[in-house]
Every structure is written in structure tokens, then in C-alpha cells.
Amino acid sequence: MTTPIQVVQWGLGAMGSGMARLLRQKDGIEIVAAFDRDENKIGQDLGAFLGGAKSGVLIQAPPTGADGSTAEIPTAGSPTAGTPTGKWPPKADVVILATSSFTREVAPQIKEALRQGLNVISIAEEMAYPYAREEALAREIDEAARSKGVSVLGTGINPGFVLDTLVLALTGPCLEVKKIKASRINDLSPFGPTVMRTQGVGTTVEEFTAGLASGEIVGHVGFRESIHLIAKALGWRLERIEEERSPIVAKVRRETPYVKVEPGQVAGCRHTALGYVDGEAKIELIHPQQVLPHLEGVETGDYIEISGEPSLNLMIKPEIPGGLGTMAMAVNMIPQVLAARPGLLSMAELPTPSALLGDVREILKWRKGE
Ligand code: NAD
Question: How many CA atoms lie within 13 A of 322 on its CB side?
């Protein structure tokens, strides 16, 4: 058999650790390096860190570029201050990046991986369609990837699947599309303090309003990316996007391991976005995110309504689990990315995602037409 597909896992938080566990279960794939900036993780054997057998791969700090630049510049007080930078393995095929949400933050990491001539899969929400907010950076990444003959993809559960890829797939059998309305009603309770803070869970309504104004409470990151992706793939000229965020106020007490919400306090953020085409709001995305919605009779689910010819409805109840879904999407897209044309790509430009259940080398050969 040929050599396994060699993967570098960059970022070993909630998502990255789950991806690494999944990668270790796949036939025809091996993890050849792992990077994280957290000093508590650096130096540990990856397999043991993941709760399994030793792997012989040590978790390292982020690597230094050939030109001496670092993907993350350690400053005094930063988590990597004083930590030696990590080393790239002699050979690898693809880097899976699970470190941050924003293109500006992951761009140095992507560029460093591209300097090594490696393909990249990122779950940063903004990377689902980085042209939406960071056009210049997106072009830079695209050029760097093309010049090395490799591909870069942003994916995830949302953005990356539910409110964009799945929506687009559902328009496949349509002769005409007049309007798209899609909602993802989910439960935030598995998530930790960072998500609680950025969604404003556990605040008073006044604190929520102040948090929105200061930018500390942001709601969902990804509407702009999903709307741009839908419009681009359909050939709609997007004129503008309008977003609205409002507090979901609890009527009953809701408690998770990370947060306590009393009646009258904020249990989550109802975030909606409208994408205008020809003066009409043709794309409507709805994403109320809250903890324990079932306590007030709200069931989770993903819903897509296409109005057109024919009109179509899709309902997935309960919601596609966000954490598991994200881990799977990043890993399952490996063959599509390795078989893709070079450049910065989106989910809309690659073949349909599918699970990897057999030897991934065989699946890759088939995708490449070998
Ligand atoms: P997390 O905070 O649990 O983990 C992030 C990890 O990355 C940590 O271990 C941290 O030490 C490490 N890290 C951060 N910056 C780094 C750097 N420069 N170099 C090396 N390591 C670095 O977060 P998570 O839940 O694993 O999610 C990761 C990111 O993915 C978040 O920004 C999250 O919003 C995003 N995400 C996207 C989707 C999607 O659907 N697109 C879904 C889930 C999470």
C-alpha cells in the first residue's frame, strides 16, 4: 500500500482534539505533527493527550517560517512567550487548522503552511468565504496557494454546511429560485465560557444591549460568509446584507455546567440576516442560539425553505450536532481538497461532502480519477 495521507493538526482545543481523535481512527491517514500554543499541551504525546495510546508525535508550539517569521509572534505575556517554536515534519499533505474564527488571525498560519507547500483546511468561520470581509487577504492566500499548486478550504458545520452548502445542494433540482429562508435552531449548552460570553448568555438585557454596542457580544459569526457563498454560487448579484441581533429572554431558570440563567436574564442571541438581490430580501437566514431551549418547549432543528419552481422544504430534527458535525466536515473534506485545483476554494466549488468509511487513499485515488 502507498504511504498514508499525512496530516498536521494545528489547534487542539475542543474541535481540534476531536478531529485528531477522528483522524486516528481512519484507515490510510496518519497525523505527522500537532501544533498548539497552549503551554499545558506543548510537549505532551498527542495520543496520550487525546486519551488513547501513545502516538510518538509530540505536541509542539506553532512553527517558524523558513524566512524566520513565525505564524504567531510570541510577545511577553502571550501563551507562547519563551516557548521554542515547533518544527514542520519532513513531509505532509494537509494541515487542519482549528485555532480561531477570523481570517486576520488565521492568515499568518495559512501562509506559513502554504510556504511549506501544504494544503489547508480551516474551520475559521470567516474562512468559509473570506472574500466577504477580507478581500485583499483572500486574494493573497489564493495567489500563494496557486503558486504552490495546493488548495485552501474553509469549512465547518455553520458556516460551511447547514446554512450554505446544504441550502445550495437543495437548489440543485430547482428550475427557478425566488427566495431562500433557512433557520438553524440549536442548543448552546455543550459550549464553554467563550461562547457564553460572545452570545451574551447569562447577562441582563441591559448588559446584552451594551455588549452588542461595544462588540463584546457578537452573536453568530458566519452569516455574511454563508450569504455571499449562496449568492455567488447561484449567480445572484448581492446588493447588501442586513443583520439583527436581539436577546432571547428566559422565562424559566436554565443552568449548564458553564452558566446559570435566571428568569428575566438572557439565555441566548436571536441573530438574523437578510441578503438583498434586485432590491428584495431573497436570502433570509435565522439562527437563534441559546442554552437549553427545550426547557421552554423549543425543539432544535435545521430548516430550509426554497420558494421557486419547484418549492422545496427540508427539515432536520433535532439539529445536526454542531461539534461532531464540525469535526467530521473538516476530516471528511480531506480527499476533496487533495484532489482539487490549486487556490483558495469554498465548499460551493468542491464536490459534495461525504463520510470517510474506507481506506482514505482509495477514496482519494477515485476522486483523482486514478
Ligand atoms: P478552542 O478555544 O477550544 O480551541 C482553540 C485551540 O487553538 C486552543 O487549544 C488554542 O490554544 C489553540 N490556538 C489558538 N491560536 C493558536 C495559534 N496561533 N497557534 C496554535 N494554537 C492556537 O476552540 P474550538 O471550539 O476548538 O474552536 C476553534 C475555532 O473554530 C473557534 O474559533 C470556533 O469559533 C471555530 N469553529 C467553527 C465552526 C464552524 O462551523 N465553522 C464550528 C466550531 C468551531
Answer: 21
Q: Where in the chain is the domain with CATH 3.30.360?
A: 165-320
Does the pTM surpass 0.70? The reply is yes
d(CA 364, CA 370): 9
Binding site membership of 156 for ligand 1 (Cβ less than 6 Å): yes
Q: What residue spans in the chain does CATH classification 3.40.50.720 cover?
A: 5-156+324-368
| CATH fold label, 5-156+324-368 | Rossmann fold (3.40.50)
Atom 3 in ligand 1: which residue has the minimum CA distance?
A: 13
Q: At what angle do helices 14-25 and 322-332 cross, to 10 degrees?
A: 50
For 221, residues 6+ apart whose C-beta sits below 8 A from its C-beta are 101, 102, 125, 126
Residue closest via CA to ligand 1's atom 21 equals: 36
Please name the fold of domain 165-320. Dihydrodipicolinate Reductase; domain 2 (3.30.360)
Beta carbon of 98 within 6 Å of any ligand 1 atom: yes
Mutate to test the pocket of ligand 1, among 99, 195, 327 (most ligand atoms within 8 A of CB): 99
Q: Report pLDDT digits (tens) over 159-209.
A: 999 999 999 999 999 999 999 999 999 999 877 777 888 899 999 999 999
pLDDT given for residue 73 in this prediction: 44
Under 8 Å CB-to-CB from 310, ≥6 apart: which residues?
Answer: 173, 174, 175
